[in-house]
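G., before I forget:
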Amino acid sequence: MTLRAYVISRILLTIPMIFILLTMVFVVIRILPGDPVLAHFEKNVDPALVEEMRVKLGLDKPLWAQYFDYVFGVFRGDLGKSMYDYSPVAEQIFSAFPATLELAISSMIIAALVGIFLGVQASKRYNKPVDHTIRIFGIVTYAIPVFLLGMILQLVFGVGLRWLPVGLRMNPMLAAPQGLTIGALHFSTGLYTIDSLLEGNMFKFVESLRYLFLPSLTLGTVLSGVFIRLTRTNMFETMRLDFVTAARARGLRETTVTYRYALRNAFLPVLTMIGLQFAALLAGAVLTETTFSWPGLGTYVVDRINFRDYTAIQGAVVVFGILVSIVSLVVDLLYAYLDPRIRL
Amino acid sequence: MMGGSSTKKNMFSRLVPLLTSLARRGLAGWFIAIGLIMVIAIVVMTMLAPWISPHDPSAIEMGPLLSPPSSQFPFGTNKLGQDMLSRVISGGGIMIQVALLSVVICMAGGIPIGLLSSYTGGILDRILCLIMDSIYAFPGLVLAIAIALMLGRGVVNMALSIAVVYVPSYFRVIRSQVLSIKEMAYVEAANAIGAKGHTILSRYILPNVIPSIIVVATVNFADAILTAAGLTFIGLGVSVDIPDWGYDLTVGRTLLTTGVWWVIAFPGIMVVLLALGFTLMGEGLSELWNPRLEQ
């Protein structure tokens, strides 16, 4: 298969997956027992009020019409109106999204760096005490609820040592970073770290890093276990290959051999793992955001659970699912680009 | 469970040699033995809770509010003055029930679908694979949130919403195993002597898939516990009236900034130990049954 054929078939495969995903969410929210509109209100509400909301949200139509409205809406970027304030759900999600993205990226970086480093160390001391310790660390990070780890870090670094803030994205005394403004042109990413750099405000940059650090460390640590395991087994096998022995025989330093030769070879599985872990990352982000009052998609979902805003939750769930599909598509394509074997 | 004290005695007299033989098998054996002990200890503690708790776990104002650990209240008290030690001892019930039930539901769904799909093959297999892949790709907790929200509170509903998320794990493992076993000579032989499809599936293929199912189930247990704790944490818990580690953790979060650590520390340790027990078992079993890496 040529690379082009692979890319096309991989993209085509994503479409039915997104359809199944949309249908699944529709079935869960609209067809499973429990009427979202009725559930939104407390008991003994005026039936006229219920009817009014049904009409306003288009939930008075037959189910198949609702389904088409919903699917076409998603493709136009319309996720319906919120039950809480009738404003468009898509806009609310769009404004909460950068916070989640920033948290996700920095957590993934921490997870991959910690995981790869510990995995390499474990593989070099295979079946020795260091290896066992690192393995047990990996197992414990798998078994600890992410929000519990978050609370422990908040207690130690926030409440106890007072080194780092325990919640929010930015010092409430400071305005959110504005990004780059040249004359009438305005450019911002919504990522506070990058926007504060674009603004040229080092103080805000440091502050945004301080706020970002604990949530990212929490989520990154929980995800690092998978990377430890993967790197450990891969490196253990790679370090015994001929080209590594050859590099050693040439008198290269051990760190050069490990990180520049062997690790490079073990990198492709890690890339795949980053893609596979993205779903777990988003699930973890929901809980991490709640723990740290981080104003992203997860906090949005949890807030809306309290308001019983079913349309908003439906929209957020759809966005989570589509995000994962897109990331796994991108990772697969990157993999195909980097590994020529897949094109054969 | 077959009743009678003789079975119980038998179970315990068998447990010790089992553990010692496990411990001789290196790190993997230790993992299984320690994991098993942790899980059994916590389950037994939860079952005996009514008899061994020093106080009524739900009784308020047993002592001063938010008292730190002391000789009278070794784990302190919460903001209602409830004894945290008693709440820790009896707080595992919901989580264990939810996890157990969700694993059972998951197996009841995932195993037959996996066997059917891989054994029949063809268009049915393709469609089922696509559906399972779609569920698998979803952030599990988010899907569970949506389902739990619609089904409402309750042990069964929470177990169901967790189970849906993990059905694809069984499906995938079974499918890949069956596809390779199906090609083996002894299955071919069974086919040749005219064995029926369901006989081949249940007597020739299923027994060989069981080890993988057990490994998936242990991981599933740990995941179900963590997901149940997560659902409770964001306000979709089973009940606020029954002592529950997940609920205590949720309440503890609001007290964190005042430095009250004991309300989250002790229930937190219990959740970790329970999930850790299953994770250790899974880790050990998969290593023991998949010795490729040990060479």
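The beta strands of chain A are 180-182, 185-187. Chain A has 14 helices and two strands.

More on Monday.
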